[in-house]
Amino acid sequence: MKEIVVWAEHRQTGLMSVSLELLSKATELAHQIDATVSAVLIGYKCDAPAEELIRYGASRVFVVDDPQLDLYQSDLYPGILARVLDEISPEIVLIGGTFIGMDLAPRVAAKLKTGLTAHCVNLYIEKIEGKDQLVQVVPGWGGNMFLKIICPDHRPQMATVRPGVMDKGAADPCRSGIVIPLKYEIPDHDIRARTLEFIAEEPHGRSLDDAGIIVSGGFGVGSREGFELLEELARVMHGEAAGTRPACDQGWIPESRMIGQSGKTVRPRLFLSIGASGAVHYTTGFLKSKVIVGIDKNPKAPIFGVADLGIVGDFRKIIPCLIEELKEMQHQSEQKGGDQCSN
Fold first, then answer.
1. What global pTM score does this model have?
2. Average pLDDT rounded to a whole number, residues 89-118
3. What is the second-level CATH architecture of the domain 2-190?
4. pLDDT digits 0-9 by tens, 221-251
5. Distances, alpha carbon 204 to alpha carbons 242, 253, 258, in Å
6. Is 141 exposed, middle or buried (0-12, 13-18, 19+ CB in 10 A)?
7. Which secondary-structure segment (H or E) carries 322?
8. In degrees, to the nearest 5, what angle opens at C-alpha 124 toward C-alphas 119 and 128?
9. Cα–Cα distance for residue pair 312/290, rounded to 1 Å
């Protein structure tokens, strides 16, 4: 029986959402090649997350539970995961493209002497030359097209996927599975550098992952002052401000607010893209938004090919009018609410 394995990233706050998203995709792939879905969990006090993985689709969860593994250790985790995978011999291995996952995946691939495709935006099975292959889709050539990559001769086939790219399935509280504890000796001489603690970045507004409305700006915004206008619009709409890689490179937004292939993947109810042409490596970060609005001076900008509503014009004239209209609507709503209370 073929097997698809998901490395389940577990931090002190619990399982990372991307691990559950990958379980859903692994289940979809498994149906196509008649495979089982398993997860590997490395950490400390793993009982609860192991059961959660089963509820989200894992038939088996291989657990390496040790106090020394409470935090991600770059000298230990790759060797342990490679050892587990070597024993399981899976067909496919999926790893979340978090900062930790991007450190872990290439180390494991090197130990297993197999290939690795990073930053995938889609995964599917295709029969090529009579053999089921995992097709790994990534943006390429400066984000101007999608490339399909396969690993025809080596196993496992490995890929990383950024958080938010795949849909997370629903948990089934009645689902059953097997938790398989594994024990490995961890010699002290294997640890050259030790992770002591994780320190969260100072939050810049709320998380983009949970935002219902996102206002995102590109290089066409022109300056930090231009971004202040976008941020005001985001505040009025009770949303969050974000931007493109060029906007981040200019220092107009922090890296934690960057949308796209090398940044965040989001799916808000409403996504406004302002002053960004719409290259593929940017649009892949928000294609699953419910409604997309694009504002740009260039009527031929690619952003209008993905937007539900496009506005051609200068955002410096459009945004102030939009802010004024929204403030007036909010004022009227508050006034109406006050009149109803007095009555």
1. 0.75
2. 93
3. 3-Layer(aba) Sandwich (3.40)
4. 999 998 999 999 999 999 999 999 999 999 9
5. 10, 10, 12
6. exposed
7. helix 315-342
8. 115
9. 21
